[in-house]
Design goal:
Layout (H helix, E strand, L loop, with lengths): L1 H5 L10 H21 L6 E3 L2 E14 L12 E15 L4 E14 L7 E4 L4 E8 L2 E12 L16 E13 L3 E14 L9 E15 L2 E14 L7 E15 L2 E14 L11 E13 L4 E12 L5 E17 L2 E4 L2 E11 L9 E14 L4 E14 L6 E13 L1
Antiparallel strand pairs: 1-2, 2-3, 2-21, 3-4, 4-5, 4-6, 6-7, 7-8, 8-9, 9-10, 10-11, 11-12, 12-13, 13-14, 14-15, 15-16, 16-17, 16-18, 17-19, 18-19, 19-20, 20-21
């Protein structure tokens, strides 16, 4: 259990593809572990399988659905959703897991923006344990829907992209050491009609090896490489690799930290219309802290620097800080007040949407309230603000959203 967490992480942004896939796999393994070890998590049995079902309804007002500085347009959005988790213990050491969260976003006055969505973390996973080896076969998929979650997107609300990662990973537990190898074949498919989101395929290889200094502390080296190919000639194919160090520690039952740091190089093909492009090399850092100060106050924080792949229109270099304080100061009411800051530089622009060299800053914050109404029914109310500033005036915008949601666990 500790080894899975120590090699895991939280995907705070779309960082180097190899590192991102490694973190996503460890995060999924941790989610499966928590589900299996939580009493009563699965509440419905069908043959040899155990299930957990949920349903939700969200209502949101967004005052700038097309992310424009001038003449912003607002809309009301309804989001019904369903969720399902399945555990099938095929043998004592081999288990099949299914996780699915899906729904539909219905825009009242901008129906062209209505779309289905599949939440990140959805997928099928098969775990195999052989001696000191833990092998995972998986197919993870998602359909994104929030355009403002991609720092490079502006002037449009059409942002629907299917990401499907099919792959395998193996963890070798050597008692005083842990070695992980993995591979993912990732398909990116645009589901919009604006032709500014492009299709692509990447093949990603990653590896890390760590020494266990204590049962709750490990440090080691990590490597990864990715090969990115676009289906259109409007974007250059590219390779990216990273090499660095990682450190994971549970310093107390109330405090844990994770750190990835190293060097990454992004190399686009330099031919034809892209002959003028150059390689981008940079130091990457991803630091995360989770701390429970006392019974009433806890927080999680992340900060870092990365070179990111965006299949929307450009690749970009990003500095970021994210903090989420959680306040349990009112009985039966959970309060969080997240905020973030990002500073980015565009590395290359495609589809005639050239933002190469653009420098932008994004700030955001909000408040979220959540309360259990009954043992199975809960509700949430939240507000979020996002501001994007840029040296390209047409890509600036501000955004306010207010949402009310209900969730029911069967």
């Amino acid at each position: 259990m500790i080894a899975v967490w120590l090699l895991g992480g939280v995907e705070t942004c779309l960082a180097q593809e190899a590192l991102r896939m490694s973190i996503a796999g460890a995060e999924a393994a941790e989610a499966r572990r928590k589900a299996v070890t939580t009493i009563g998590y699965y509440n419905f049995k069908l043959g040899p399988t155990a299930w957990r079902f949920s349903a939700g309804l969200g209502m949101e007002y967004n005052d700038n659905v097309n992310l424009r500085e001038e003449n912003p347009e607002g809309d009301f959005i309804f989001r019904p959703s369903v969720g399902a988790n399945m555990l099938w213990p095929i043998t004592e050491k081999n288990t099949l897991n299914l996780t699915l969260g899906a729904g539909y976003s219905a825009y009242l006055t901008h129906p062209e923006l209505s779309q289905i969505f599949i939440t990140p973390g959805s997928g099928v996973s098969f775990d195999i344990y052989i001696g000191d080896f833990s092998i995972n076969l998986h197919d993870r998929f998602s359909i994104t829907e929030y355009a403002y979650q991609n720092p490079t997107v502006s002037r449009t609300g059409e942002y629907a992209q299917l990401e499907n990662a099919l792959g395998a990973s193996a963890l070798w537990d050597l008692n005083k050491g842990i070695v992980t190898l993995g591979y993912d074949h990732v398909n990116y498919m645009s589901l919009t009609s604006n032709q500014r989101t492009q299709d692509g395929v990447s093949d990603v290889f990653f590896a890390n090896a760590g020494l266990v200094f204590r049962p709750d502390m490990v440090a080691g080296v990590e490597f990864g490489t990715g090969f990115i190919n676009y289906s259109s000639t409007n974007a250059p194919n590219a390779t990216q690799w990273n090499a660095g160090l990682f450190y994971r520690a549970i310093l107390s039952q109330y405090f844990n930290t994770k750190l990835n740091a190293g060097y990454t190089v992004y190399s686009p093909e330099k031919s034809g219309a892209f002959a003028g492009l150059s390689d981008t090399s940079a130091i990457y850092v991803q630091l995360e802290v989770n701390h429970r100060l006392n019974r009433a106050v806890s927080y999680s924080a992340a900060a870092g620097h990365s070179v990111n792949l965006s299949f929307y229109g450009q690749n970009y270099e990003l500095y970021y800080v994210q903090v989420q304080p959680n306040w349990n100061i009112i009985k039966k009411l959970s309060i969080s007040t997240p905020f973030f800051w990002e500073h980015g530089t565009g590395l290359a622009g495609y589809y005639g949407y050239s933002l190469q060299g653009e420098k932008f800053d994004r700030f955001g914050g909000g408040i979220s309230l959540r309360r259990a109404i009954t043992r199975k029914l809960s509700s949430g109310l939240s507000y979020q603000f996002v501001l994007r500033d840029s040296d390209v005036r047409s890509t600036r915008y501000t955004l306010d959203t207010v949402s009310l949601s209900f969730s029911y666990q069967f």
